[in-house]
Design a protein that fits this description.
The chain has helices spanning 2-26, 32-49, 106-114, 165-175, and strands spanning 65-66, 69-75, 80-83, 120-127, 134-143, 152-159. By secondary structure, it is of the alpha+beta class. The longest helix has 25 residues, at 2-26.
């Protein structure tokens, strides 16, 4: 009987600890503001470093990976993934034909959104790092102004089942107005 109670107590502690880890992990989700700020910083980094900077974005333990998000770099003109910290198998490969489970051409939409002067948001389905399942992802895309090349864009996303694209667009408008948002 004593063994049975000890086993039940240990099981309850283990379940409680697991629940706390899951709750802590969910509270550690990237925000839209972080995605925009990191994408803008990445675009500036590539502007300063040029194509020599791509390698920095392939490091899954590097500064371009935070919480449950990461910056990835692709070439819209040449149809190539230039850098991706979580999917190194995509680097150097064509990306325009990649669709999500709903049939949405992810990179065609990212390239279109990122060509706007302020950048833009795209919604699609993608596997969340560490989750082992598909999730709704909203990625912010922006063109990187680099010497001797055109078509390079940087993106980062958030995994959020509730936020609406118009909310993100409104936040982006505010963040793009230096009189309202001076974080950059």
């Amino acid at each position: 009987m004593k063994f049975g109670r000890t086993f039940v107590l240990l099981a309850m502690v283990a379940v409680g600890a697991t629940g706390q880890r899951v709750a802590a992990a969910e509270g550690d989700a990237a925000t839209a503001e972080e995605a925009v700020n990191n994408v803008r910083a990445a675009a500036k980094f590539l502007h300063d470093k040029g194509s020599a900077g791509y390698a920095e974005f392939n490091n899954k333990d590097g500064k371009w990976v935070w919480k449950d998000s990461y910056v990835f770099v692709y070439d819209c003109r040449r149809d190539r993934m230039m850098a991706h910290p979580m999917r190194p198998d995509l680097v150097g490969k064509p990306v325009m034909q990649i669709t999500d489970n709903t049939g949405r051409f992810i990179f065609k939409e990212l390239c279109k959104a990122g060509s706007d002067a302020r950048g833009g948001w795209v919604e699609y389905v993608w596997q969340k790092p560490g989750a082992g399942r598909l999730s709704r992802k909203l990625s912010y895309a922006l063109t990187a102004d680099m010497s001797f090349t055109t078509g390079i864009q940087v993106s980062a996303g958030i995994y959020d089942e509730k936020i609406a694209l118009p909310e993100l667009t409104k936040a982006l408008e505010k963040m793009s107005d230096p009189t309202k948002y001076q974080a950059l």
